[in-house]
Structures are given as C-alpha cells and as structure tokens.
Amino acid sequence: MNLSRGQRAKIADLIPNGQTFMVGVTVNAPGLVIDFACFGLDSQGKLSDERYMTFFNQPMTPCGGVGSVTPPGDTTGFSIDLGRLPATIERLTITAAIDGAGTMSAIQSGYVRLLDGSREAARFSFTGADFAEERALMLLEIYRKDGIWRLCALGQGFNGGLAALVRHFGGEVAAGDEAPAKLSLEKKVELHAPQLLSLAKKASISLEKKRLTHVMARVGLVLDASGSMTAQYRKGRVQELVDRILPLAVHFDDDGELDCWIFADRCMELPAATLSNVNGYIAREAPWAGKYFSSSPIGGVNDEPVAINDVIRKYRDTRIPAYVIFISDGGVHKNREIEALIREASKLPIFWQFVGIGGRNYGILEKLDTLSRRFVDNCNFFALDDLHDISESELYDRLLNEFPLWLEQARRKGIVA
Question: Highest taxon of the source (predicted)?
C-alpha cells in the first residue's frame, strides 16, 4: 500500500498477526546529518516516561516493545512488538531531526515503510519539496483507538530540531543543549505517585546541592528485619523509609526501580519498589515483618554479612555505580566479617551508606568510614534515634553527603567510568 499524507489504516489489515513488525526509514539528503527517534506517548500524546523515547542514546524500551534496528536497504528503523507495550503507551511516533545546519527542503527523496519480515506492507514517500524551513519531521504514527492499533502517515514538520520535538511531546531538554534531558524527578513523581511529590521536591534540592543531578546509578535499600526492629515496622517507619528513598532511585536509576533486600539470619531480595507499587509496599511484600518470629522466613537475629554478600553479588559487575542504603538498628556482632567484606568491596562500583535507626551497639558500622587498607573510602554511617528526629530535607542531605566524594575517587581510580 502506498500511503498519502494523512492516510490511515489498521495495522491488522497490513500485518497478518497485527503485533510484530519493523518500520524502516530511508532519507537521501546529502550534507544533512539526521537523527531518528520513536516516541512512545501516553493518552495525552505526551512523553510521560522518557525511557520510551527510542533513539541513538537509548536503543530499546524497558519492555522490549520498541528497539533500534536497520532493515536491509534502509537508513535506520525500529522493531515493534505491540504486545509488549504497557497499557500506558497509546501511540508511537517516528521522527527525523537535523543535527546541525540545514533544512528538510534539502531532502532529495525519503520514505518510511512498514515491514512484515522482508515483505513491504506499506510505504509513505516524501521529498524536500513537501517542506520548507523545517528541521524536524513527524513521519509516521502508530496509535491505538478503540482497542485497535492503526497507523497514520503524518509528514508534519517543525522549524526546531530534536529539542523542539522533545518539548512538543512534553519532555525536557537541558538548558543550552539540543539533546533530550531526563524527565525531571518531580515530573515523574507527579505523573505516577503524586503522594510523594513533596519528597521528590526536597530530594531534588539535595541532589542539586551535591551536584548529583546528572549522575546515573543503581540504587539499593537493605532493611534489617531482626526481632529488635519490630517496633519500627509496626510504627510504619520502614514503609516511610521506602517512601523517602524511592525518589532517589527514580532520579538515579535508569529503570526507575529501587532494589530492596530484607534480612535477619537470612537475606531475601524483594521485588523492586517503583512509583506504581510503593503504596503499602512493606505490608504487601513482607507482611510477616514486625510480627512473629515463627512466621518470618528469614529468622530473627541480624546477620549483616549475609546481606552484604547478596548486594555484592548483584552489583559487582554493574556498569554504572551502585548506591546502597543499609538500615540497621544495631546489635552488630560480626564485626570482623563485615570489615573484611567492606575492604574487599572497596574495589567494586558500590558505595555503602549505613544508617542506624532507633538502636544501639552499631559496632564496626560506626568505624567503617575510617577503616584502613581500602582501595577507596566506600562507605559512610550516621544514626538516628527516630526517623522523625530530622526533617526530610536533612535526611536527604545526610544520605548524599559522601556519595559524591566516593564517585570522584572511584572515577579517578577507574572503578567507575
């Protein structure tokens, strides 16, 4: 099928299974450098999750529903699996934008086509005569209406470049930069967990003060669930901790997830906390915590080394830094083992922020910051009698106090890029 500008069709009429196919794009424009992207948009036509912008810097969506490919004979393209897309993604828009000088009027020929394997199912062609001063184009849209996926040949231009497209779709662009910026922490939280918006704003201030706004890192939270922590769980303090730490994970982590562990005699990794599941997270994922030892699958006596080892196994080969917040209420007794593990981990891309809450006898945890014979200073510790003793802003400041110092050392020593 040869599509004209504005023409629409049902995907199922063009692709037998109506779900998996490729989009190939070819532009013949000597002298122009063109970037191609696929924007995954919500029901409002907005980029509510920047992970669903597929382009040179981000070649695949988290769900695997859209990926960068180059079909034979094309300049570039995208693999599409509509069945993998989350319900929040209502449309995919294929775009082209000039990087540098020039306008789309210089295009000698171009097309975007739908491919079922090697079979061409539909094509929309265009030339520079269709445009004037435009520097960016929306070429093709694949959208869901009444539960049915359809396509539309757009051929719509913008005078701005890639930055103009990002802004048009509700995304953000760094000041003075034409490259897409990460969706702001506050915007993500407002869209998906508005009850945490106040926390997100305070976290953003601390991140800016510590010059961490452009840092990417994995984020982990390790929770003591020994018998002496019972009151902290019953008062809801542990759930409050998850609420407060999650905005940091959403900011730092490329997948927006907070990795969580809970430990006593044994350690258990829980499902990652996210903006969509944070409400009632502890009661749902660890309903036995803070209740009776007989119902606990991890026992009742704290064994920090077993938890530290679990975290090391997960992050030792990570390609980006890992920032781990480790909660304890004291009673630390395996001092030599902890000391040895932290020394060993000082060559790994992991920073440990130990936090004591409502306890005593923190043992070696209080001395780790000055521990000798480490490759770099890879940890910090502070204690609170009660989580409510300090403001949320002060908590973020304390949590982030030494992380940037470790980052600097770790980069200098080649531990992280």
Answer: Bacteria
Rounded CA separation 298/276 (Å): 26
The whole-angstrom separation of Cα 209 and Cα 95 is 36
Question: Strand, helix or coil at 216?
Answer: coil
The winner for highest mean pLDDT among 61-70, 234-243, 360-369 is: 234-243
* pLDDT tens track for 371-395: 999 999 999 999 998 999 999 999 9
- Enumerate residues 6+ apart whose C-beta is below 8 A from 389: none
Region of poorest pLDDT, from 148-162, 197-211, 391-405: 148-162
Q: Are 146 and 160 spatial neighbours (Cβ–Cβ below 8 Å)?
A: no
β-strands 136-145, 258-263 pairing: unpaired
Partners of 289 in the β-ladder:
none
CB 210 within 8 A of CB 403: yes
Comparing CA positions, the residue from 93, 96, 86 lying closest to residue 152 is 93
Mean pLDDT of 274-298: 87
Phi and psi at residue 18, in whole multiples of 5°? Answer: 65, 10
Predicted confidence band at 177 (pLDDT cuts at 50, 70, 90)?
Answer: very low
Homologous superfamily assigned to 2-183: sav2460 like domains (2.60.60.30)
Q: 113 and 122 in contact (C-beta within 8 Å)?
A: yes
Identify the CA nearest to 104 among candidates 76, 130, 86: 130
The ranges assigned to domains in the chain are 2-183, 188-412
Work out the number of other CB atoms within 10 angstroms of the CB of residue 357. Answer: 20
DSSP strands (E only) in 42-175: 53-54, 66-69, 76-81, 91-98, 109-116, 119-126, 136-145, 148-158, 172-173
What are phi and psi for residue 192, nearest 5 degrees?
Answer: -115, -25
Q: What is the spatial distance between Cα 146 and Cα 162, in angstroms, rounded to a whole number? A: 31
The CA-atom distances, in angstroms, between 390 and each of 196, 240, 246, 394 are 18, 13, 18, 6
5 close to 154: Cβ distance less than 8 angstroms: yes
What class does CATH assign to 188-412?
A: alpha beta
Can you give the pTM of this predicted structure?
0.61
Question: Is the CB of residue 365 less than 8 Å from the CB of residue 332?
Answer: yes
